[in-house]
C-alpha cells in the first residue's frame, strides 16, 4: 500500500465535519437555518461529503439537537453523501428515519475515554453495534466505523495499536465499508500514522481508511503529509478549523478544510473543492460563530493573491 | 540527496530567528533587557544557534536598533552561534565590531520585493556583497547567504527557480558556507520545496541548505515534512511563531519553534531542544508581547500532558 512521496494519490476525498465535530465543541449554538446557510456555502465550494450531525442525546450535545431537521433539509440537494454519527440502535433508528446515506458507529480505543464519552466499556459499545449492523441490513444505508482516541488518549496517554486493530476487525466483521481513525485530542504524530495505517492495511484491507486529524499541537497537516506518503486518500476536516479541544482551552480542533484543500491543490491533487469559495464559507462560519477561526489561508488569501504594494508598510531592510 | 521518508535526518539544526524575524514585524518594541530575558529562556531550552538581529538602518527597523548591544550582551554566554543579517558593507562593519559569528547577506529573488526591501536591484545587491565578502576574508567570521521570496513574491507571484539558482551560485562564489531559502510571505508548497532543494543540491552542493518557512497559509510544517524527505537538516523558526506577515494583517509569520521541535522530537529526530523549556520561553514571549502567539503546542501542552478528567466538560456522545 505504500507509495513514494513523489507519487501521492491523484484524488483525495475530503469529508466536511464542521457541522458535526466543529459545532459540538463551540459555545455558540447555531440555529438550523444558520447551519443550512453554511452547508450551502460549502456545497457551492464543491463539498459533497458531509458528516453532518450526530444522533446522540440532545441533552448531552444540545448543539446537535436538530439532527433530523438538518438531514431532512439537506436531502433536497442531489449528489450529496450525508453521514451521521450514532452511538447505538436508538440513534441509528433516528438516523435512518431522517434519511442519511451512511451511519457512523463510534467507539474509543481507550477505556477511559469511552467511559467519559458514552458511559460504557469498549466491549459494551462493540456488542451494541451488532444490533445496529443487523438493523442496517437491506436498508441501503451504509455502515461506517470511527475510532476515537486512535492515536492517544488524554486520560491514558499512549494507546496500543493492537487496541485500534482489534476494533477495526470488529467493524470489518460487522460489514462496515469505511473506517475513520480519530485523532480526538491532537496526539497523532507521523510515526504513529505510519504504524497505524500499516497495521490497518494488513488487518482490515477491506475498510476504506480515513484519517481525521486535529491540529491541537500544530502538526495536523504534517500528519496529512505522512498519510499521503502512505497512500491514504481520505481525510476529514472542518471549515475554518471550527471546533476546539474540550481538554485544552484555546487549542485548535479539527484541521481546517481550506488549509487542507490549499495544501492538496498545490500538490496537484484533485479534491473537487474550489479554494476561493471555501474561503467564503469560512468567513461565513466565522461570522456565525462571532469569532475568528484558526484556519490560516482564509486570513492570508490564496497563494497568488498579490499585494498591490500600497498596503505594504515601510519595509526597508527587513530581510527574509 | 534524496532519502526515503522512512529515513529522515537523525539530527536537525534549528536556528532561532524570533529575536530577528519575529520581532521586526511586531508593533511592540522590546527593550534590550527583555530580549535578553527571552534569549536566556531559549538558551535554557537548548537553543544554541540564533539569528539574533539585523544590522540595518535603525530608522527602517526601530525594533532592531539595539543590534550591537544585544550581540555584545550575548557574547558572554559560551557555546552560542550568533548570526546577524546585514544588507551591505556598513552593516557588516557594525556586525563585525559587535562580535557576531557569522554575517548573513540577504537579497530577494524577485526584483520588486528587493526594491521594496532594500531599494535597489537584485544585481546591485549582489554587486555590493563582493565588498562584504572581501572584508570578511581572514576575519574568522563566516559568510552566509539568505534569499528572500525564494518560493514566491507577494508582488510578482511565482518566482522562477532559475532566479534562486543564479543567486545561490553567486553566494557560493563569494565563499558563503550556508544558504537560507526564505519563504517570506508563506508561498512555499511541497512541490516548490522539492524543485528548489533539488536544483540547489545540484547547482551549489557546497552550501549547507537551510529552509526558512512561514506559516502564513497554514502549511509551514507540511513543507518541513517535504524538506525532511529530501534530506534537508537545517530549519529556521521563531519561538511562539512570533512575527507576522506585513502583507496580510492577522496572518501568521514564521513557523513556531516549539511546534517544529515537537514534530521533530516525535519523529525521533534530535534537535538538542527541550520542549517543556521551549514552552516556558514561548509563554515569556507571549507575556512580553502582550498577546497570545500562534504556536499550538504551547496552548495544548506536550502530547502526554494528561488530563485529570475533572476539567473535562460533560462530553457524552461527542464521538471522535
From TrEMBL, chains A, B:
| Record domain Pyruvate carboxyltransferase: where | 12-279
Q: Which GO terms describe its biological process?
A: ketone body biosynthetic process; L-leucine catabolic process
Q: Which domain of life is it from?
A: Bacteria
For this protein, what is any one GO molecular function term?
metal ion binding
InterPro entries per the UniProt record, alphabetical: AIPM/Hcit_synth_CS, Aldolase_TIM, HMGL, PYR_CT
Q: What is its EC number?
A: 4.1.3.4
Q: Per its UniProt record, what Gene3D superfamilies does this chain match?
A: Aldolase class I
Transferase: is it a keyword of this entry?
yes
Q: Does the keyword Transferase apply?
A: yes
Q: What PANTHER family does the record point to?
A: HYDROXYMETHYLGLUTARYL-COA LYASE
Task: Return the protein name.
Answer: Hydroxymethylglutaryl-CoA lyase YngG
Q: Its encoding gene is what?
A: yngG_1
